[in-house]
Amino acid sequence: xxxxxxxxxxxxxxxxxxxxxxxxxxxxxxxxxxxxxxxxxxxxxxxxxxxxxxxxxxxxxxxxxxxxxxxxxxxxxxxxxxxxxxxxxxxxxxxxxxxxxxxxxxxxxxxxxxxxxxxxxxxxxxxxxxxxxxxxxxxxxxxxxxxxxxxxxxxxxxxxxxxxxxxxxxxxxxxxxxxxxxxxxxxxxxxxxxxxxxxxxxxxxxxxxxxxxxxxxxxxxxxxxxxxxxxxxxxxxxxxxxxxxxxxxxxxxxxxxxxxxxxxxxxxxxxxxxxxxxxxxxxxxxxxxxxxxxxxxxxxxxxxxxxxxxxxxxxxxxxxxxxxxxxxxxxxxxxxxxxxxxxxxxxxxxxxxxxxxxxxxxxxxxxxxxxxxxxxxxxxxxxxxxxxxxxxxxxxxxxxxxxxxxxxxxxxxxxxxxxxxxxxxxxxxxxxxxxxxxxxxxxxxxxxxxxxxxxxxxxxxxxxxxxxxxxxxxxxxxxxxxxxxxxxxxxxxxxxxxxxxxxxxxxx
Length: 508
Known about the structure:
Helix content is 48%, strand content 2%. By secondary structure, the chain is mainly α. A two-stranded parallel ribbon has the order 1-4. Strands 2-3 form a two-stranded antiparallel ribbon.
């Protein structure tokens, strides 16, 4: 029980935005109080931390800096690190003292320590897997270490409890709290980002993370867009609603353009050189019996690995457009919900607020009362589809071309999980046409409507054929609810992977 999802009391939510059925306090300015949790949602910082990530630790924690500097496959000076020689496990067991992290008040230090202990954890338990992967020439990962030593486990669990997080590497640890600006006065585009911590140490690893930061830097605009849309619906202001949807379209298009720069900054061939270390222990063959956290409990733990699915951008749009409710009732959707617990508590509170608020005021219903508004709503669905289609394209080119491992880093089936969400939004784009009367559309919106509907219908048919063909080469893609702890189907019969994307109409 001690290692389950941690929640903390009102202390954890001190100065954080509070949520009820109608309001959510969003940071409008950067706080002066250093106890405010770093991942408090704001109009300026969005889903990034409100302060610059702490790069170096103060005493008595500088020993962690020293260990993590020595760890990467390639150190900053280009020489082999401990992970390259297979000596990291012994090194960290001997060199790292058991440090007291039980009373950290400064939120930057608290999250930096959490980040760094999750790095130590992943490097320790997955070191044998990467060495095996190299030795077998990418055939499989062998077995990871099944026990995490107390000098890592005890502080990590304490830090996770203070944050309301899981004691394992999350997206915030590897990406959104793991960067520095090269030019402090510049923006967070990929060329201006360097990493605080590395797993492998190559420019491709840096580029991989940097592109994510470049995308999330626009989440402040997204948060503002979402609030403006909600306000317009609540006031039943059609003109303002359409203006806000157009602004949100601009923001989502920018994010998608940034996402597409991944090809420029991180080579598909290089991804598997560091992918091993962002895998988890849940639903992975490398950890059939989980991992015991020594000094905490002898009960084995199972956690999902780091994944972009932990990010809050697309789930926010899903919830605003009431798309989440249209996801099929199957194990893949259950995994999606499980992924969404691997993020900061304030992000989860915000997402719940958006979901509940959108339902209570009827964002989708308001949009579909006017044909031109409905086309703009459809265009936002298309941007969600674009995002998920890019993610699927990355999976095919960065992973499937170089690995037959059946699971993604988070433990989801590599072939069927992403298409579950992608097919749902494509179907929603097609279904929404039932609310559109072409003779009521502006010339611009009429062209957009025809283009989006035809595009989604074609992509959906191609996706379904593609997945069925790929499944032939990958085992274990059809799963049931038993693999997703805590979730049960609403119906007696579960939907199989063969029916992914065949959800009920997205709009009825």
